[in-house]
Amino acid sequence: MASRAQDDSSAGYQPLFKSFATDAIHVGSEPEQWNSRAVVPLISLSTTFKQHEPGKHAGFEYSRSGNPTRNCLERAVAALDGAQYCLALASGLAATLTITHLFKAGDGILCMNDVYGGTNRYFRKIAAEVGFDVSFADLSKIEEIKAALKPNTKMVWIETPTNPTMKIVDIQGCADIVHEHNKDIIVVVDNTFMSAYFQRPLALGADICMYSATKYMNGHSDVVMGLISLNRDDLYERLKFLQNALGAVPSPFDCYMCNRGLKTLHLRMKQHFKNAMAAAQFLEADPRVDRVIFPGLPSHPQHELTKRQCTGCPGMITFYIKGKLEHASTFLSNLKLFALAESLGGYESLAEHPACMTHASVSEDERRELGISDTLVRLSVGLEDEEDIIADLDQALAAARMEMK
Fold it and tell me: Which residues does the record list as N6-(pyridoxal phosphate)lysine (modified residue) (predicted)?
């Protein structure tokens, strides 16, 4: 049994995954794989590898199809996801594109309606235009899942928590319904927000777990990358072919950097959770805030589901500031510790305005339906001192309050 020191933030969640930190540090980093017995995986920049004889190589032939440094990363991520396989791609959207290439024009794709703006844009403006039958539904509601499945549905795309309104999808419940409808439908979970430390979708019935590793998995805002984890041999062979054939692979240096980030994932996620809980509690008690959405708060409508499904919560908070667009803008412009920037999951705290930034490509009507209003603010709470995080939020709220007078 994995041990954990209980505190207010961690109480009631699923047990931590056994040997997570040990696997993060050692799997894929074994010194014995190198002639030099290097403790830290080497960065193999070679694009090509000498063969024993024509058509017979020693495991690698060309760096698009496979690279020693990328192999180290893929092995480590597979272990952390409880998976047999992992494939690294050049970005989260490259992973999305690669997965979608498993299917053909005319096939149905059912996607969670509240997803990352780039995912929404890809499915609506690219996949749909080349012939995929793309539909969206609130997959956090069982009745909507059942109603949205079609005879031609081939893939169901879940994002949980959703971006930016932090809805939680019951992965096991959704996967059971989908596979009962048709066992051949591929259930994909975008696990970017939770990371491998807080959630294992494959253990909950998903066929594929994917990430924008740019976020928590790397954790340092210095790598753009995507990851795909899975257990099925047939899907792996097809995706491995697509990884090579499409060619959207990360550089060896980026693989090295992401692998290095994994070594502290367990430490970072614990602190993200602790800091985010403190910030969420502060915001929820503040009269200058209309509503806070954070799965770690008992007020979150799916708080109990979160505890049944996850080992904790990431540093993502969404809240509605009182007032109008100008008050949200004043708040964001006056933050000093939080940087006004897109992305999330780095060690530094970030704040953004989804309606104008990450979800600007989503139509105004759709944003309104999803609750992405002009007063919605998304925070990625970093690893700074808790008191400094709260002080920055407080002074920026005070500046926005002055705007109301």
Answer: 215
